Q: What sequence folds into this?
């Protein structure tokens, strides 16, 4: 299990007394102190692998988002569909007003599944199944 | 519009906001409660709250207004407003939550271990927050002006007061409940009327609007002009006038408006016949704001509109992640996975809302083209029920829409004030706890309220776009590079924030101040994201590479904290915590 060596996540607030630059504790001080940064001296190869996989998933999803949507303005301008014609055909309205939203949701759902699987895999064969 | 119904609608929303906020106050005790609701907000409630907070006056009123004026091109705005959350999900959501920071400056300091970067980020948060608050308060002024006839600045002031009370009293916990409640209110306020509007439109034989630069009155329409106005009439038209036209008083008399310019006096009612072309307002040379935004496509606009479209896309796609009121909500998630799930739900909730908005724009083009004449295109959503349905039903639906609009600017203004006050309270005023937070709340809302009273008319959806552009050119590089690139150094981050964010902020300020009103320069300044985002990224990467020895010593630890899943804090079956 790769997570036990990770410092506990702490609340970070801006307080004047920070000298080391380390995030200080919150006003309420309800949480435990954070371990020293030196507890993690070198980049963990497992972390590198996880980051690479997460980044790949994010970039694939970005491509799915950016390619169709990024080309659409040019396409609409080049095809004689929209332009400044007085009547905007219904296809344009559907393409811009309806179609993007299910697509965005689908890309998001795909990415979350992929990202969670990456994290689970990284946790060294200890699958943390969620209901 | 029947004023009583509208006032009742708005009052109900304000009362409900204060009430739900007060309920939250009873449970918010410690500072941690106050800022992030002690991080016990479930993903679904949090998703409602994020959506409720995000759907601002720009989404509720502005998009429909711009669609009315400029057509299908404006649908890029809601697409971008939603897609911004997808980009946020992909690159930022879980790591940002795992960083454990409250605000963007907190993230900057935690990641880069530098007070200087923190301070620059703080200034930018305040700047973006104020830019975003400005159109909210203007939307408030517009809504209350239509409902009550009160001057625009008064509406902004009322909303500012309600926000101050709600935020200073309850903090984030109460805001969470308020926001979640307001998402559903806003969705209902668009969904119910649109059903009736579509039925009325069908009963009217479902006419299709034209999107050229010469809109037509589909029905005989009475236009009330509050402020003096100069129009250009291109085809002679016979109208009925009460008030003054070209300096001559008229009392319900029939006049022929010949081709050319006509001056309409204040408080004049002009009745146009069905089928007449809508005369368009002349752009007065002394106007303080680039009012060309609310005009239909002109040849000049058309030439630059592809650039403007990409400017909008880039700003909204990349800017969402850096909006202070959006980011602060991610700290209320219990862990990184919950942050992701929240964001996916938000994508669905926003999509449902934005499916409705264009319908109002299209119907507005048909039944309220006179808004182009008076320049109040942002009012399209508000006036449609009365125009299309009329009677008591129209009044009731109008009140519902007005209440929804009120929820829109209230919720966003609450969230923004909250986060701007948080940054002011922690970084500008010495951090002494809740008392200072309340003081900071006053400062956070007072400045944009004053500015809203001074600055001229900007269509709210495009004014919001300016805040997105600044955010996209400063915080997007900081977050993306900070989370995914070990090589980021404090000098690099500072340079990127200053050059990217600073140049966008300058361009945007020049636009608001009305520096360049048309032509290529105006286009470049009004949609700066196309050039300022690359500037921000390039500055961060190049300066970081040049100062490689300044990579923060704790980078490896921070990266592990950002990317590795949390050890499961709650007892959960399974061998996850060995």
A:
């Amino acid at each position: 299990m790769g997570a036990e060596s990770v410092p506990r996540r702490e609340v970070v607030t801006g307080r004047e007394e920070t000298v080391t630059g380390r995030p200080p504790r919150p006003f309420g001080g309800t949480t435990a102190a954070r371990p020293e940064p030196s507890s993690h001296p070198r980049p963990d190869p497992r972390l590198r692998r996880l980051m690479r996989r997460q980044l790949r998933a994010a970039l694939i999803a970005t491509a799915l988002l950016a390619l169709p949507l990024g080309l659409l303005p040019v396409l609409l301008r080049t095809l004689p569909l929209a332009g400044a014609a007085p009547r905007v055909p219904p296809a344009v309205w559907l393409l811009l007003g309806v179609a993007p939203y299910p697509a965005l949701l689908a890309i998001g759902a795909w990415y979350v599944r992929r990202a969670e699987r990456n994290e689970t895999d990284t946790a060294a064969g200890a699958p943390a199944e969620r209901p | 519009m029947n004023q009583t119904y509208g006032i009742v609608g708005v009052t109900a929303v304000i009362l409900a906001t204060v009430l739900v906020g007060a309920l939250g106050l009873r449970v918010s005790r410690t500072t941690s409660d106050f800022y992030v609701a002690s991080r016990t907000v479930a993903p679904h409630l949090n998703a409602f709250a994020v959506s409720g907070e995000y759907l601002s006056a720009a989404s509720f009123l502005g998009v429909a207004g711009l669609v009315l004026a400029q057509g299908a091109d404006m649908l890029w705005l809601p697409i971008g407003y939603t897609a911004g959350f997808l980009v946020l999900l992909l690159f930022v959501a879980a790591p940002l939550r795992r960083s454990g920071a409250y605000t963007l400056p907190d993230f900057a300091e935690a990641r880069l271990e530098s007070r200087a970067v923190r301070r620059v980020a703080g200034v930018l948060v305040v700047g973006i927050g104020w830019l975003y608050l400005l159109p909210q308060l203007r939307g408030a002024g517009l809504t209350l002006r239509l409902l009550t006839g009160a001057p625009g600045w008064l509406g902004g002031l009322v909303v500012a007061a309600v926000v101050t009370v709600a935020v200073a009293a309850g903090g984030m916990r109460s805001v969470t409940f308020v926001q979640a409640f307001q998402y559903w209110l806003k969705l209902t306020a668009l969904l119910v009327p649109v059903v009736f509007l579509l039925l009325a439109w069908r009963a009217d034989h479902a006419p299709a609007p034209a999107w050229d630069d010469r809109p037509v009155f589909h029905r005989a329409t009475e236009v009330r002009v509050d402020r003096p106005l100069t129009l250009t009439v291109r085809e002679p038209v016979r109208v009925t006038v009460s008030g003054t036209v070209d300096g001559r008083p008229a009392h319900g008399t029939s006049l022929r408006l010949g081709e050319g310019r006509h001056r309409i006096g204040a408080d004049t009612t002009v009745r146009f016949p069905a089928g007449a072309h809508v005369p368009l307002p002349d752009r007065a040379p002394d106007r303080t704001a680039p009012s060309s935004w609310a005009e239909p496509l002109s040849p000049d606009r058309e030439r630059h509109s592809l650039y403007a479209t990409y400017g909008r896309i880039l700003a909204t796609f990349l800017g969402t992640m850096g909006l202070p009121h959006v980011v602060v909500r991610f700290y209320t998630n219990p862990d990184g996975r919950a942050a992701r799930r929240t964001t996916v739900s938000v994508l669905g909730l926003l999509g449902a809302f934005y499916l409705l908005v264009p319908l109002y724009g299209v119907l507005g083009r048909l039944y309220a083209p006179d808004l182009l004449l008076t320049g109040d295109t942002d009012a399209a959503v508000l006036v449609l029920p009365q125009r299309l349905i009329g009677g008591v039903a129209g009044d009731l639906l109008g009140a519902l829409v007005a209440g929804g609009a009120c929820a829109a600017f209230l919720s966003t203004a609450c969230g923004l004030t909250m986060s701007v006050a948080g940054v002011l309270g922690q970084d500008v005023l010495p951090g002494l706890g809740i008392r200072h937070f309340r003081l900071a709340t006053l400062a956070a809302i007072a400045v944009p309220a004053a500015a809203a009273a001074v600055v001229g008319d900007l269509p709210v959806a495009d004014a919001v776009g300016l805040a997105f552009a600044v955010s996209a050119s400063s915080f997007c590089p900081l977050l993306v590079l900070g989370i995914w690139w070990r090589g980021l150094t404090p000098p690099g981050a500072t340079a990127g924030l200053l050059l990217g964010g600073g140049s966008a902020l300058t361009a945007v300020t020049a636009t608001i101040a009305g520096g360049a009103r048309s032509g290529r320069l105006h286009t470049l300044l009004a949609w700066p994201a196309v050039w300022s985002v690359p500037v921000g990224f390039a500055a961060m990467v190049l300066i970081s590479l040049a100062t490689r020895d300044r990579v923060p010593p704790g980078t490896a630890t921070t990266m592990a904290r950002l990317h590795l899943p949390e050890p499961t804090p709650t007892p959960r079956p399974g061998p996850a915590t060995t």
